[in-house]
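Troubleshooting: if your tokenizer reports a length mismatch, compare your output against this known-good record of 638 residues.
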Amino acid sequence: MNDILAGDAHPGFHLFATINPPEYSGRKPLSPALKGRFRHLPIRQYNPAELMTVAEKVLPETLQGKIIAVQLTEQHCRLRAYLQLNKIPLQPTSLDLQNVARAVIRGGDFSENGLYQCLNQHYRLYLMAAKISLEELPEPATVAVSKSAFDSELCEWFNQTVSGIDRPWLIRRSDFNSIDEKCHEIRVKTEQGEEEAKTEITKRVAQTRWRASGLSLKPNHSDDILTQALYRHWQQRWFDHNFGQTGVGVDSVFPLTIEQGLTLNLSANRPYLLEADRRISDWNSKAVRLWPAFWHQISALPNHWVDDYIDEALAVNGDNAAEQHLPQAHEKQAPALDQRTNHEPQPVTEALTIGSDNVPQKYIPENVGQIVPALDQITDYENQETQQLDDYIVFDKQDHFPGIYRWWAEDVYVSAEGYIKEIDISNKYMQGAEFLIPDRLPGHDQDVTLTSDQTLATFDWTSNDGQYALPSLTVNDYIVALRIEPDLPFILLRDRYTGIHTLSVPGAKPHQSIRFAYVVEQREPGKKTRTGRARQAQSTGFDARCCEGMETVLKEVFTNINEQPQKVREPLRTIQNAKNTTQRIEAIKDYCHHFSGDARPKRTQNFFEFLVTQRQGSCRHRVPVFIAFCRYFGIPCR
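Known-good structure output:
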């Protein structure tokens, strides 16, 4: 038997038939012979709450959009009720409501007159059938759109509990939840209990106030996780300050995601959190609050080095100063049938102990460089036997050279004697860290569909301490799906400055080999430009400073260019006389491109000076020279 349903699209006919073909669409009158084969089944109409939800889907998710949705829904229901009252077999549908909402948006006139013009135009057929105008329609008191009963207990509770209310809020029980800021009226569903109603009231008022500041309710999805977490943290601090006495949980109004909560709790990010808390506390005491400008200051914090805030963090009552403001630690619950899926993160307390639960220490290359071995001085590679190297293909990407992956990051330090030191900074978290919770990558026997900006990586690796560096392709890559074998719990962190991913497996044995399969996704770069407007003193990060060993040699070279070897005089002048940064970088690149490998330095010679003036050595030797030149002219480089 075939089921045929004619519903909201043709409100004059409501038929449900169980017959064999030909099918009946309900558009023409039935013949007497067919009438007995059908039974009439009226279809339930959308109630006001459902219609308002339909309108809200079309309108912007703003306070103005909510108000327009309420106004259009009320007029729609008034007309529908009048047509039913007069037994006119023609009813406005939800599609009509969507169309008139779209017309309002296209017209851009959100005044009462603008709404009436759109309603008169799109509901003209119904108004003609009713022989009435919108202005003549009975008021909601005559044709009830919803039951709205005044709730004195909720009114008294909210207006006496929340401070800073300059005008009392009127609270009614209704068929749907809504807020009218202009009339200072809140409607909550009749069937909601007292605690549920209190949460709904507080949530709507808090979100309405926040939107009125010109800021969005949710963090910008294009920001990195730490910046999003700071936005939520500010919202939660503001909510606690203004609505904490209501007893409503802040997570029901401005919730942190698991990744945001864990990222905010990382010790590597604690200096940012402490500095943000200090500024939020000062901001709360100000009479005039320029919200977007203040958020610009807070969002600029992660663009500075962690070092910029370490002194302030230590000065605020020690390492644990921020504990009272840290969000509630969240732990992702494992499914009941599978409690060993390796995509479940470790508890936040274990994540904090990756480094230390204290504020991180400042990075001082001079101190670290004392214990790091010096770079080899074998620069005559043309006289050496050619070594055979095997490429290990991690990413099956044809347009990418398989020998170049982003696996680790290093800083270059030159001692006063000219020794070159390479310092591993892969997980020093110069600008904080991000806690990632990737999706579970399907097994070998399942297909994986990738988007155009995603790439699959597969490889095996061993570690003696349970720390595994996971290669990527660009600085903006994020691991979004992951599978490891054997199946062990893990912690995945991403360095915000270098973009390097470090995976920690606490349960791994020394030198245990693990097979990795994961998907990297390239995202749009966030706000990484450091700016001095957020602080009085501009950040002087390590990648923009020349150490003493670099500066001494380069200052001598550029001061006495005519005393340098003939082959480098003109290239050095080209670097020195560059008109802008782009020209200077190109000149430095060209200078380093002409390195050769047929000579070695003398035993007592300053090795860094030898590389700069003789341009000898392989890529591992020309890289420190390129970095030193850039930093000497104030160009950040590592």
